[in-house]
């Protein structure tokens, strides 16, 4: 990307510059080559979002673009080799994420077709289903919807109300929508393009409800009309992603053959007998849903990419744009030199980097599980917890980052030509779909609670009692301030020693870890007491901790991001780059601690003195990082074809140069008007001089 | 608004219900009747935003809607009676703000025409200008632009580069755009509809630049073509407000008659002699800009209205929507009963109420100044500082509130039919236009600093020295923890006593005030030391405090909001309503303190014990407020025609009732399928029983 900085003083790089190539490699990760290929694809104008087009135009365009992806063989990596795929799960997601650069609607529409609809057939179906439907799904001959969510139930999938009742005489399932709340809703491809769907419904046979199962169902004929018994509605305009035709579906006595049940985890014999390789209905349900984790994984990655786009635009602009001239009579300040601007953008830059490195950890874990390399129940659970922890932070992060970037560019940030509002609008729904962020974090918290409980499960009562005493003692020590007193004594009034403590990797890790452990332990104590209460009262106790639990899960995710960032730095073989990245990692870790500073103080993990050092120390780190910012965002390798933002194209630098040149000429010119203020001062001085003269005379 | 709560248990109103009518009156304020009239107007479908229309369609529609407003005589209240107005400045803004309910584009386009373009002619021009142009401006015969901002200078208006040079021979001003950065930019009405403009340019006569002045200039002929020497560009698509045709303008030797200078604050004689009623160029500039404060005032009010719309939608939905059933086997929880949901929505409800009451204070102040009732220099300065403090908080608040409301409604919150994403997109630019929020808060901070300095200006050195010693002593006491120790002794381990302290009006006021005073005093100390440094170094010291200063200004604004809320409560003549509003005001004050809790701890204003009580106490307040939420949002008086959100129309309650009725019938039916899990448990129990039987036998 070109970013002429002609009028910007060369930054003082006391420690040299970072190595952009090495930094780029560290971020591209295991599937770097595939990512680069996908980036090249995303640069093609024919795949770009048509800003300002009507909903109908956007939908038509994106559907056509899906065809371009098929032609380019960009979207089949995850499918079996047998059908022309590559059995490459990690690489598939890596490529898929980059589509967000072209158009988030294209990313999500592709996700609906191949990541949800196609994946459900692949992972929930068996060989005959694959043979029958995967080729058509891959080629886009069968556009399909993923009909899980209902108007009445999104987060609580187990409670969906659509039924699939087995009719043993006809050997068919009869699909029914019992009431309005059970209409399928928000389904991509449902409003227009979908010819078929994977439908989730309560499977009922022989009078028993075996819970939610997936069925393959045709929904429209060749002319695009609903098949008999099927109806629907268009969800219409949305806050973004208007290239996708979301819609509603409902079913009245629609019959489908018995073998349309995607039966990897549950089958129904001709006589209606149900069988499953997984005995527990609960575990069976979670196993089925678990196959769909890739949606969360890919949203995590796409959110990071979108965040980086916003930051690349805003930081490039802030390095060229000038406004106000507090420090000089002739030169205006570059925005990036304002402390407030640094405070707005650099911690968010650190956050995007941390989220990016954490995403790579998630993607590798995902690939290990789905390739079968490490595919135990525990691996799958870990993967799901990791995805549930990271996706909320990166998607919320993207909205916050894109918004701050747009505001940091002032009015120009609001223009469509600078892209950020459009990206933000499209990314908005990422925080509530494929798992509502709050619900996901609550899942993570429950997992942390059960891990915490498991630690003690095998201990006898005596050990547990001793542990509880120790915990109580440590609480007393922390809250009495004795521990803080210790820190104060060690630092003995030295700000430098406090700062040294804060920049220690070990200190940051300890502080970030302590928060998760303590918060979970506190809730676990209260929940243990509530375990014997009646259901409603126990639920009330849990509810009283809901906000804390979600905060703990968020802290857990931040710790994971910090660890990933730290690990990634160690792989960079260049001293300056490692140093600069360590500063940035410190900004990440320390701003997370700063955000929760009152908690650290109240729980005795930080002394007042160390706490008071924190913010000034972060501010010093910001000024140290400031000269490296452009190099860091340039390491992401976005071209103008990716960013498509006029203020990041160098136009602002050109305008600043012209204005500076004009001002220089005016100052040098004899004809230039004099400022009234200057004239008044001069006259005042003359008057004084002449009065003096008069007095003297 | 209808909001059937059939399936919701009647809330436990131990203290009765609030009086909605009284609460409504307290919020409608001094211009309540005008507000109600404007609300009725905003309910008309012909004024509503055409969601999903193209930019061209929206622009045409909004322009037509301006005509409807003229016909209805809705927009002329601020103009002189002589021209058919009412000289009613406060009432005019009150009505104008409500237009946001119909369509934010309509509000802002009306604001451009009558609030900026028309106001500039009214307030910066003199009688002959009024007679010549106001009738055409009021009737929309002359649609006009407000040509102040340039691509290169938005926040720093004094540095705009367009010139108006007086040609004494022709008795004309010659308008020039010296370079690309000096193009006028982001101007509503500039892309298509504008026939004229009020143009801001550096006034140069007799070789002296007298600074920025306003000129009336025709820009297009009757056919809509640019006049000779004038050119422009369309700003194109924006992140929102696409009903407004923002654009760019540039000028090459465009000549306008001498009397097109709007000369209330500066005139040029035929011979080119400049004169002004205000001698200081700096004060003159700020006086001219000060006449335009109404833009900020009205954005503050519109942001409050939009926030309340979002909250009315989300809280109504959360009182009807159910998801998950932790506390019962048969009934799902109402969203509003989840702690996390309360935490997300109730503090924001409190914030919107506080911002609303504070807005009324601002509006009354505005009316006093503009009606001439209290119109000293100091009044004008106070008004500007108040507007600069409140507008950032309410506009940022609106974005945050609308976003949280949309997320709290899940996927349905993302649908266009539920309005929130559309409102948020349109409100987005409110945070950076009519004064960038960060720049405005910095202005407030500078005012606070100079007020602080003024307190000591007239004191002799001895008094000042004694004050500094006392300040230093108090810092030592606070930071050493001695003050906190005092609090701990008073509360002597009692959580209740800590909570009692927190809920005291006096405590909240003291804590909120202390923060502003302390932060400003700290910066003032450092700035005093820097006063003797060279310009660049002094600027650097200021820059090192920029983030703190902006934080202090924000705290100042929060204190103003808290005071306004407190004062408004005292006017409500109903005990229960006052009690409930006091809880809500406490939530507002205490969450502000909670947000800055680490600062209170580090600066010794709160003991650890009181701090630890804070969050649990807020959570208790939330559960107390929970039964009153629907009444509070209903007190705003929005009808379905205002909200236009299907999830707030009662549709969700109907769906929940249907689903509950279906579930009830199923439970009562003998044919209903049994759940596999229940069956397994039953079989297990039978097996155990039969094994027992076997053993016994």
Automatic annotation (TrEMBL), chains A, B:
Domain (Acyl-CoA oxidase C-alpha1) spans: 290-449
Q: Which Gene Ontology terms describe the biological processes this protein takes part in?
A: fatty acid beta-oxidation using acyl-CoA oxidase; lipid homeostasis
Into which EC class is this enzyme placed?
A: oxidoreductase
Residue intervals of the Acyl-CoA oxidase/dehydrogenase middle domain: 145-254
Q: Which GO terms describe its molecular function?
A: acyl-CoA oxidase activity; FAD binding; fatty acid binding
Pfam families listed in its UniProt record: ACOX, ACOX_C_alpha1, Acyl-CoA_dh_M, Acyl-CoA_dh_N
What this protein is called in its record is acyl-CoA oxidase
